[in-house]
């Protein structure tokens, strides 16, 4: 029996086995074996093939946003609305044959936006140009799932396709560490919030060939989360679910989406730009040189929760070593020209002046 046949047989068994306390460990073993076989299949399929799958993408700007959707959902039209790109638009399937980049400017941040060929059912298994499309998505800092308002079932199909291709949308990477050792078997340290028993943890580790390891697991983790951590090839990426072509329906479909737009007439495009900025968690920090006015034209774009130390690292590798203190104005300052140190957390629209030792 080949690997693909084994996978098919296990998937059928998984569907037909009812979940209860008596079967939970058996189901866990099936899931673990399935994950291992699928990983084995992916590795064997990639042997000898060029990396990148035909797409040489160069990331620029502050973040990369990728438009994902089935053919004719309106990705090219949306790209043209969001950016200065000139992606060909046509009312027929597979208009986009290559990756088309554009640059969106918002709140002084620059977002590289890619329009990729339409996703098709079976993409995770390589149907159509599935593997090429999915390889591009792995470069994303944010994925926009574009759904046709007249075909709301597309959302569930897209989410399923991306999940099978090892994407985990809007999920945090599991807090799991696995340390190999020479002997001692499997030992487990897990917090009370981890919703997977020690025997299931051992079953997963054994399936993947871990015999002598110490495992630490933290946070609200279930069986699938732990399995993802062991496989270690998942892509964790934030996503926006965008309902398009709302001008073509009288009543919006009852599905989970973040914003409803019409790329054709530009409805809610500005709101989408704002949502992209917020979803990526960016803040703007305006820099001020000692004795001079602050530069309020070109802020530094950095992640929310960043510290003065993060700013130093982003500006120049020598700034940490030369750092004396910083002066601060704005939302995170208690008063103007407050002296702060490296661990101070910054807020959007702060003005920061770095006082450094001379080189």
Describe this structure in words.
This protein has three domains: 3-49 and 174-231, no CATH class; 63-171 and 235-279, P-loop containing nucleotide triphosphate hydrolases (Rossmann fold, 3-Layer(aba) Sandwich); 282-356, Beta-grasp domain (Ubiquitin-like (UB roll), Roll). Helices cover 30% and strands 24% of the residues. It contains ten helices and 16 strands. It has a six-stranded mixed β-sheet with strand order 2-3-1-4-10-11, with helices on both faces. A five-stranded mixed β-sheet has the order 13-12-16-14-15. Strand 7 (186-190), helix 6 and strand 8 form a beta-alpha-beta unit. Mean pLDDT is 87; it is low at 47-54 and 91-97.
Write a brief structural summary:
This protein has 359 residues and is of the alpha/beta class. The chain is built from ten helices and 16 strands.
Helix-strand topology string? HHEHEEHEHEEEHEHEEEHEEHHEEE
Please name the fourth-level CATH homologous superfamily of the largest domain. Answer: P-loop containing nucleotide triphosphate hydrolases
Helices, by number, come to 10
CATH architecture of the largest domain: 3-Layer(aba) Sandwich
Rg over C-alpha atoms, rounded to the nearest angstrom: 24 Å
**CATH T-level topology of the largest domain:** Rossmann fold
Share of helix, binned:
25-40%
Largest sheet: 6 strands, mixed
Roughly what fraction of the amino acids lie in strands?
15-25%
Query: Can you tell me the number of structural domains?
Result: 3
> Based on helices, strands and strand pairing, what is the structural class?
alpha/beta
Number-wise, the strands total: 16
Spatial order of the strands in the main sheet?
2-3-1-4-10-11
Shape, per Cα inertia axes = globular
State the name of the first-level CATH class of the largest domain: Alpha Beta
Question: What low-confidence regions span 5 or more consecutive residues with pLDDT below 50?
Answer: 47-54, 91-97
